[in-house]
Amino acid sequence: MDILCAREEEILGFDARRILDARLAPLLQERDVARRLLATMNNGTEMSGLDLSVQDSRGEERRIVYSSRKIEQGTFAGMWVLCMRDVTDRRPANEGLLSSNRQLLVLNQIMGVSASSLSLDELLEASLSKTLDLLGFDLGLTYLLNPERTIALTRYHRGVPENYLARNRAIKVHHWPWNFVFVAGQPRYLDLQGEGGTIEEEILASLGISTLACIPILAESVVVGALFLGSRKAEGFRDEERRLLEAIGQEIGSGVLRSMLHKRLEAAHRETNLYLDVMTHDIKNAENVANLYCDLLLDILEGDAAQYARKLKGSIRKSSGILQNVSTIRRIHQEPPDVKPVHLGRVIRAGIERTPEAAISFDGTTAEVWADDLLPEVFTNLIGNAVKFGGPDAGIAIRVEDCLEEDHAVVVTVEDTGPGIPDEMKETIFDRFRHGRSRGCGEGLGLYIVGMLVERYGGRIWVEDRVESRPDLGASFKFTLREVVHGEAGEYEE
């Protein structure tokens, strides 16, 4: 293997006679590399990426990467061309890059655990296990502060001796050295390199380890707990390891904050529902009593006084409608649709009967549609909207027809002879708190509920002019519902 390279002499500082000895030494130590080299030479194939650690003339280690190619033709046929690269200066950078990539991989997996955990307990347990598995620590604990912030309580642990847990399941955070972590919010690294007989040495001995990292868990810059990670290896923590552990503590803290905010949101949601339940119940009772007195007044009053009583009764009815709308919206958001075959004609006739003062025409239908017990609210709101804006003299017509654009669907039309809807409002009429007509007023919830319910049943809704291009002659509300096909009942899956 008498192959020489002038560049190699320059880098290593040897003359040609000692170059081969410098190469031979690592080959004798790295047998697998030597076998690879010999196999390449015997087979006559090219070689690349032979990485050897070679000592130069000063006794310093140089990392050389060799590659070679056999000359097939010409005067030098059968000889080998040897190329070499000195990568000594690149190795620290490469090793640093590999270390950074590894740290990013670990941190990314911890972030995945933090983001996917549904509860605080699940987050702490999974984060501790993942950190121990990825970084090779021998034991770990997670502590959380009590509400008074005086004691840290063990939530999860792995590999911790029972005698340590018996004495330190709850620790006082204002005592040294824990106050450094739980009060000051600073990481603390313990090892056996200091003087003997210290509190730190006693802690390490009770855990049976040589090094311990105590990392605060911060949520919005507030300490909420700590992550303890211990190793039996004698080496201390390098700077990059410390940065990684502190980043893990911050990420777990972000997860803890999300969990805390989620719990607060759930509590606020329950409290809001409680207030709504109490208010709805009490207001309904008050409305029932007020309605009773209004009926009594209407029986005994005449003239203007009776008219005032009728207006009062109308206001009470409006208040009842608002409560009903709020209850319907709550059900839409809280309850998943439990659709089943519903006889559409019966629902429409029941809605007509609830509004005896209105003149409503309906020819009937035998269609069954997929809906739930909230479907009557669609007709209650559409009929009520027509009566409110069209007045008692407005004509209302309801039709059910086959949908020409969709299979197994019907189009329901509710139209009136009221003031109609301007063209610029037709696209936004079903938005929340959008008033629906050119005159009058309302809370804007009725049509919003209609739109949500039609969407809930898989349909679509829109509004047109009753007479084309004449919005002043009334509005025509149209929406689709999926029709039950014979033999399909019981096979539907939402």
Automatic annotation (TrEMBL):
Record's keyword annotation contains Transport: no
Q: InterPro entries this protein is in?
A: GAF, GAF-like_dom_sf, HATPase_C_sf, HATPase_dom, His_kinase_dom, Sensor_HK_Regulatory, Sig_transdc_His_kin-like_C
Enzyme type, top EC level = transferase
**Ranges of residues in domain Histidine kinase:** 375-485
Q: Name one GO molecular function term.
A: protein histidine kinase activity
Listed EC numbers? 2.7.13.3
Reactions performed catalytically? ATP + protein L-histidine = ADP + protein N-phospho-L-histidine
> Which keywords does UniProt give here?
Kinase, Transferase, Two-component regulatory system
Q: In terms of domain of life, where is this protein from?
A: Archaea
Is Kinase set as a keyword in this record?
Answer: yes
Biological process (GO), any one: phosphorelay signal transduction system
Q: Which PANTHER family match?
A: HISTIDINE KINASE 1, TWO-COMPONENT HISTIDINE KINASE
* Protein name (database record): histidine kinase
Give the originating organism.
Methanoculleus submarinus
